[in-house]
Amino acid sequence: MNQENTGAAAQLDARASDFSVLFSSTPRGARLARLLAAEQLRSWGLPWEAATQVVAELAANAATHGRLPGRSFRLTLHAVRSTLRIEVTDTRGDRRPVRREPNAEDETGRGLLLVAALADRWGVAEDRFPRKIVWAELGLAAPEPGAPCSGGTGGQ
Asked: 92 vs 1, 74, 86, 96, 114, CA distance in Å?
C-alpha cells in the first residue's frame, strides 16, 4: 500500500488520534495487536514499520511476562502533534521489565533493546493496582514529498 504522506505530522497538530483495544494474553493476542496497530497507523496516514516493531515487542512481553490467567492486556496508541505514544498495559504490576545485555548465545532477551533503539523514549508507569503500563514514544517527522508512508528509513 503506497500512499503519499505529505502532511501527517501537520494533520496531527490539528487533532489527536486514539486507538485502544483489549487482547488476550497469548501469542495470538500479541500478533493481533501488532497487525491491528499497523492497520490503524496506516489508516491515520502515519509511518508504521518502526511503531509496529515496538508494538510487537511490548505485546509479546505482556503476553509472556505480564500474563495472569484470564486477564487481558491493553494496547493504546495516542498520536498527538508530532509524537506517537504506544502503551501496553498488563496485569503484572509486580513484574517490571528490565533491559539487559544478553550474551551472544542467548535466544531471548533482546526485545527491550529493540524498543530502546526504535523509540525516542520508553519507560514503565504504575497503573491502578495490579497493573503497569510499558510505554514508548516515537517522533513523527514530516516525510519528504513523494515518500511512501512506510515508516522505513530510506535505505539504511
From this structure: 37, 12, 18, 8, 22
CA angle 11, 17, 40 (to 5 degrees): 100
Task: For residue 66, give the DSSP letter.
Answer: S
Question: Which three cell numbers, joined as nine digits, stand for 97?
Answer: 521489565
**Which residue positions in the chain have pLDDT lower than 50?**
1-6, 9-10, 12-14, 147, 149-156
Q: What is the pLDDT of residue 67?
A: 83
pLDDT digits (tens, 9 = 90+) for 29-64: 999 999 999 999 999 999 999 999 999 999 999 999
71 — phi, psi (to 5°)? Answer: -110, 145
Q: Are 138 and 50 in contact (CB under 8 A)?
A: yes
Q: Residue 110 and residue 94: Cα distance in Å, rounded?
A: 21
Angle at CA 115, nearest 5°, toward 146 and 23?
Answer: 95
Q: Are 66 and 58 in contact (CB under 8 A)?
A: no
Count the helix, strand and coil residues of the chain and give each as a percent rounded to the nearest 5.
30, 25, 45
